[in-house]
Amino acid sequence: xxxxxxxxxxxxxxxxxxxxxxxxxxxxxxxxxxxxxxxxxxxxxxxxxxxxxxxxxxxxxxxxxxxxxxxxxxxxxxxxx
Length: 81
Prior knowledge:
- Helices cover 20% and strands 42% of the residues.
- The protein is of the alpha+beta class.
- It has one domain (2-80).
- The strands form two sheets. The protein has a four-stranded antiparallel sheet.
- A hairpin with an 8-residue loop joins strand 3 (36-42) and strand 4.
- The longest helix has 9 residues, at 24-32.
């Protein structure tokens, strides 16, 4: 994962797509259609420098804790609701 200067990030579709039940190509299509939602939460205090990323598509969700270098350092969770 790579963070840009505006606080956004780039996530490898090969990692994210299967967690959301999609192929990488379908993930791109669903992102363009506005059907995949992303939430970035920046850590404060003891969690300074960490970001929790949450991606949602229909009833599926993928969450990961990422450090400033873009490495996943915390739990990677995929769930269906």
